[in-house]
Structure formats: C-alpha cells, structure tokens
Amino acid sequence: MAPAEKIIKKVLEAIDPEELIGLTADLVRINSVWDPVAGTNEQGAADFVARWAAGQGFDVLQETVAPGRPNVIVTWSAGPGERTLMFEGHTDVVTPGDVSRWRYEPFKAHIIKGRMFGRGTNDTKGNLAAMLIAMTALKRSGVKLTGSIIGGVLCDEEDRMLGVRDFIDRGHADRITAAVICEPQDGLICTAQKGALRAQFTIAGCMSHGAMPLSGLNTAPGIAKLIRRLHDLEVTAVKKQGRDENLGWPSFTPTVIQAPASGAPQLNVMPGEARILVDIRTIPGQSHPAIIDDLTGMAAEIRREIRDEYRQYDNLLGQQRTHNLKIKLDLLTDRPCTLTARDEPVVLAADWATRQVTNREPGYGGVPGATNGTFLWALKNIPIVTMGAGDRQVPHQIDEWVDLDQLVETAKIYALTALHYLQP
Length: 424
Ligand SMILES: [Zn+2]
Prior knowledge:
Number of helices: 10
Order of helices and strands: HHHEEEEEHEHEEEEHEEEHEEHEHEEH
Helix content: 25-40%
Shape: elongated
Structural class: alpha+beta
Strand order of the largest sheet: 1-2-6-3-7-17
Number of strands: 18
Largest sheet: 6 strands, mixed
Number of domains: 2
Bound molecules: zinc ion
C-alpha cells in the first residue's frame, strides 16, 4: 500500500532546494581527492558531514579507516521495526587532472544555467547531499516510520573501497535490510552491476640480442596467442550469455601489453619477459571460478603449444635449445556482478517514488562498473539499487557537472523511497 497523499506532501515540502544546493556546494569546495603527496584526503569532507548531521539531530559516528580517511555513519532510529534502509554515498573524488583544462575551477562549485560545475558535483557529492537532505526532510516532517535509516558516508570508493569493507568488518551492515547506492545514474533505477575480474599474465622466455634470437626464447608468440584466445573466450561468452538487457555484453579486454615487462624497450633486444593485463567484465550467469579455470587452462595449453612449435622449428634448423617458456597467471581483482530482483521491497519503493516525483514510467538500467554496493550485495546479501542524479558519462571528466533540477528531484525520490520502504 502506498503512503497517503497528505504524508507524501508533508515529506516533499520539507525538502528545501536551496539547502540542498548549498550543502552540495559546501561539499564540492572541500577538496577530498585522496592524494598523499599533495596531502589531501577525505578528512575535511567527513568532518563537515559529521558536524552538519549532528546539527540535524542525527546520531553520528566517525570511524577512522586509514589515516585521514574516516567513514561517517549517520543513524536515525525513526521507529520500531525490523527494517533498516541504508543510503550510501562516498566522500572521495577523483583528481581534477590538469586544472588549466577546466573551464570552471574544480573546487569552486560554480553555478551556470541550472548546472553546478566542479569535481564531485556528479560523482557523487550532489547525491551525497541529496541523501542527507532526504533523511533530514523525513525527520523534520514528523512522519511515522517503522525501522531505521543509516547514512553511510564512506571514504575510498574510487580506489580500493576500503571504506565499505571497514563498514562491513565492524558489523554495521549486519542489520541493514536494503541499500540505496547514491551514484550518478541519470534518474535510472539500476538493479544490476557488472562484475570485474582482472588478471595479469606474465610470460617468461629468455632475453637475447635481436640479431641472435635463436640464443634466447621470444615471448612474442605467447603474447599473440594469449590475445587471440582471450578474444575467443569473449566470443564464446557472448554467444552463450547473449546481451544482458541492462548491462550489455560481457567482455574480455587485454588492456596492457608490455614487453619487456618492465624497463625501457630497445629495438635490438629481444625481451625475456612480457606481461598482459586483462580486464574482464561479466554479466549475471557467468561464473567467475569457471572463467579463472578457463584462464589457467588457456595459459597451460599455450605453453605446451609454443614449446611444441619451438621444438619443431629447432628441428628444422637442426639446433638445440631449452624451451623453458613459462606463463604465470595472477588474479588482481575479483568482484562479482550483482542482481537485485525487481520485486524486492527496495526496488518497489524506488519504482513508486520515481513515479510519484517525476510522473513518469521509471527507467531501469545497469551499472557498468563496481560500486560500494557490490560489497554490500556480495558479502552481506543486501538487496541494492543504484540511483542518483547526473549524466552517466560525466564522472571523472573535466568540467564535471550536475543538473540542479535533477538533483532536487533525486532528493525527493530518495525521501519517498525511504518513506515507502519504512511505512507503518
Ligand atoms: Zn561514485
């Protein structure tokens, strides 16, 4: 059952667009790039949020994850009930890069024609402000809710996701029954996220003079075969899985191909070692352990093939040489894909809230990369939806921006999602 009109109106009226825009601007003006050399980190943004949230009467807990990198946990025990909804937003932003290429300074929060420009406006300080304002509006409106809301204001989402791991390790996720991941998805309700499997192949041959290749063992044929086989794996996966309606195609992409594996290349030196980095993105239905098996099997097979080929070639030339080629596989990242069922209460709540606020049929989508939600879903089985304001192509670009009308709409959607999810 949907909440009554009167209650909906009360909650929406408690959202002050100026307050939301002001809070976003305040957050954008705090440079929270994790940069140990420049000495910037999430501390300032976290302190600011902690003070602000305490001022609204929330319970606030600040926990240090790493030096200068705290999580802030904002809790509102709204009423008795089993459910706890988490809003998750991160405080870190990526580097602005070459600041001279920005039309508007990255940490000034310039507003031009309904858009706020600056690093983090889109990913994800605007949405972080929207979730805090949504929580505040619900509290101020005086509506009765059953259960609690937790605002997880976490550090280090952009790099190693230390913030969410710490949040889980300390047991905060144990009582969370659903989460809204506040990231720029342009108003779409995203119920799926691609998985990521990243690996390194190291191919060890034997270094030699470029004029005397027979005195060494070249890694190049191994590189060629690996690239070819990775493409074969991709084609097989594409044929088997098809295209996911929200996430698109699975992919096996060799991104870095280096020989020598380290140091400067030279034209007359045949490198003794090469490496290939592969970035595999998966969709629901693919098994990561099965892919790892495929990669391992592929490396062993290629090694055998190349040894045979070298042996045959050496026979042709009538020469002897050791064929001690090695191919090593190291797994660098293993993050599963996530899929939340459309009939989960949090998805139904987000769907209803989006209709209420926009008067439109909600659009559904998928997230191409991993977010903090990946860990909540994978490690704690928490149903997640990822949604928020901001063009999906804009994160990490220069002149990052967010549309302020969409941001206000987002705060309303967040508030009504919680209202629906925690209604008596
Ligand atoms: Zn983000």
